[in-house]
Design brief:
Length: 430
């Protein structure tokens, strides 16, 4: 038996399939429903998630753990039996019975932290790390990341759900920069949303649904406003010892960014570059404006895809709509890249899970993107994709997929198995 699941966190492991972890057993493969994802106290060797919404925050957090993970449909899960020995491959998405077939020899990365990676024909590409804390910074350094592309600072929380203050942030930011040193670190200011709501935050008007008040939209609201001041003051102090940059989350327009950039300059000295996180189609298309008023720009592909396809990234039933192979999405990103021009593109970083979907990184390279930020543990796998990719061929591939009539044709072009696509409501109907 080999089942084709959706790959999620790279790595190959074998182990006994369990629906629940037993005391002291850590070498098993845990099968659990997306709805049952909780912080794992003793991590299993591998994970199979049923009906996972790949772009959701609980799934993003899984990437930080680095446990090889694949996502299966409910129908596929019915074929898996408690106690049987399975292997999973988090890169190809395959699940089989028995031991991992011919475990490949993984070449050491050998990348010098802070330096770019290279394609087969010598093109320089930055693989940066998206992290949530000090351990992530250590991982980023260990895998030879080019930089820390994004610290999700909303995950930095004092114990007992206490509200963070400047002293807390200064200590946490310092520890991250020291662990990442000499990598430059980009801190994203507090990005709160309904699915990332801290315990200290009470009711906020308009903070409902995934398109309501969130990110920088909350910067003028108490008590978030005082936390943003605390973060900015802490960053100003930390920047005396470390190179860092500041990212303003969920910015929808140049006017909105200009407003917060000017406010932030009250704390942040000129040596700290400030950029917007463009996470809506409107913000992504504002490339000429970002070139004029921002020091850099980061495109958040998770939220961008949620807005673009009109499907909530947290709901597994609509995960199939968030289709990384849709020619319309790739044409949109092509438009964004063209709007940035070559010099502008040097300041654009792509974030989110899109780039790690099988076959997608070469397309993004072909469209002109060269800076990517991802979970540190994905960097070795992505660097191997780079080492197999030639830029000229990537451009040709991108040209072909932009002409494709539908997602199925793009998958065919990439040699993808149809099962790697999460089901859509219409494909489930009889
Ligand atoms: C994104 O939206 O792509 C992103 C990187 O931010 P987050 O996943 O934290 O919303
Ligand atoms: Mg986002």
């Amino acid at each position: 038996m080999t089942l084709q699941a959706m790959p999620f966190v790279p790595g190959e492991v074998s182990g006994l399939l369990r629906h629940q972890l037993r005391d002291g057993e850590s070498d098993c493969i845990l099968l659990l429903h997306f709805e049952d994802l909780v912080p794992l106290e003793s991590p299993p060797a591998g994970l199979i998630v049923i009906g996972g919404a790949p772009l959701s925050h609980p799934m993003t957090e899984l990437q930080g753990l680095g446990i090889p993970t694949v996502i299966v449909s409910r129908r596929q899960a019915e074929e898996l039996r408690e106690g049987e020995r399975l292997w999973i491959d988090g890169i190809t998405g395959e699940i089989g019975r028995g031991e991992v077939p011919d475990p490949p020899v993984i070449a050491a990365l050998g990348n010098t932290p802070g330096q770019p990676f290279h394609t087969a024909d010598g093109g320089a590409v930055e693989l940066r790390a998206s992290i949530t804390g000090e351990q992530g910074a250590r991982d980023a350094h260990a895998v030879g990341a080019t930089a820390v592309g994004m610290v999700r600072t909303e995950y930095l929380v004092p114990s007992h759900g206490r509200m963070p203050d400047q002293a807390f942030y200064e200590k946490a930011f310092n520890a991250i920069c020291a662990a990442a040193d000499p990598l430059p670190v980009t801190f994203r200011l507090l990005d709160i949303s309904v699915d990332k709501k801290p315990t200290w935050l009470g009711e906020v008007s308009g903070m409902t649904g995934l398109l309501g008040m969130q990110g920088s939209r909350l910067f003028g609201t108490r008590p978030v406003s005082s936390l943003i001041s605390a973060q900015a003051a802490a960053l100003a102090n930390v920047s005396r010892d470390f190179p860092l940059r500041v990212l303003v989350p969920y910015v929808a327009s140049p006017e909105e960014f200009r407003h917060w950039r000017n406010r932030l300059r009250a704390w942040l000295p000129d040596r700290i570059p400030i950029g917007p996180m463009a996470e809506t189609p409107a913000a992504a298309l504002a490339m000429p404006e970002w070139q004029r008023i921002a020091d850099f720009v980061s495109i958040g592909c998770n939220d961008l895809m949620q807005c673009f396809f009109g499907a909530d990234r947290d709901i597994p039933d609509v995960a199939g709509y968030l289709d990384p192979y849709a020619p319309t999405l790739l044409r949109f990103l092509d438009r964004v890249a063209r709007a940035a021009d070559e010099r502008g593109l040097e300041r654009v970083q792509l974030c989110g899970l899109l780039m790690q979907m099988p076959g997608v990184l070469p397309i993004l390279l072909g469209l002109g993107f060269r800076r990517f930020s991802m979970a540190p543990r994905l960097i070795p796998a992505m660097s191997r994709v780079l080492a197999r990719t030639r830029l000229r061929e990537a451009e040709q591939l991108a040209g072909t997929v932009l002409e494709a009539a539908d997602s199925g044709s793009v998958r065919d072009l990439l040699g993808m198995a149809p099962e790697t696509r999460p089901p859509t409501p219409w494909s489930q109907s009889g």
